[in-house]
Specification:
alpha/beta; Rossmann fold; 2 domains; 16% strand; globular
Amino acid sequence: MNASVAPSSPTHTAPVVLIAGISGSGKTVALNALEDAGYFCVDNLPPELLREFLNLERIKGTPLIAIAADVRSALSLPILLAMIDDLRRSGIQLLPIFLDARTEALVPRFSETRRRHPLSSQGLQDDAMHTRLIEAIRHEREMLAGLHEISTIIDTSDLRPVQLRAWIRQLAGAAQASLTLTFESFAFKRGVPRDADMVFDLRMLPNPHYVPELRAQTGRDPAVIRFLEAEAEVAEMLKQIEAFLTHWLPSFTRDQRCYLTVAVGCTGGQHRSVYCAEQLSKRFRDRIPTLVRHRELETRAAAG
């Protein structure tokens, strides 16, 4: 089969979403979120059929398409990577999203669901199963490294399903822009986000946590905003981050990046990082589409 894909027409501007990732990182949740948003979703389509499938759906006029790929297609992954390059050259917009998670977050998920990792062996004792599971996850990371390299990364280690669904819908909704800039606040004590393209450490800035009346508030509350706005160091940090991003954003655009995630972290992910993520978004939103995420605040809200 040598049918080629015609470039997407003006009425079909939404990119084809390609969901991939480590087993247990939330692919089913992501696909369900896209399906609920009106996407026609296909799970584990053989890469050899991708071109013909897209041809058919474009002829039918399907406006929103999402395709999932995982390690079960491992033998065809080189074909998939080549196909992605070929489709992009032919004018098809693609949004590859890779779901990742720390190994220590993945292991309990398999235990809780009692599901077997696709690369692990059956019939093993508990200790052996744990060891083989960790080995299987490591091997899977190696096998999927090529997809990881070309994709927008979402770290689901600390995300609840409701957060992942929201983030997936955000990415898909903003994907028609040439480049979308995401500012994500986080707490260093809970680890640096694996999906960050750039990380800025704000822990040296004055901390509202040590002001008793501000401790329970966040970087979105007026009293905390006034506190941080009065600090020259905070203003200088924001100025330098803005200048750095302004200088390098054209290079990321030329590199055909769809998303750039800038993570700003403080100790607890509640005051300084939240404030700075909000301020940076305001400074760039008139120049480029922006998204704002607050990992720790959203996690608490989801838990509550």
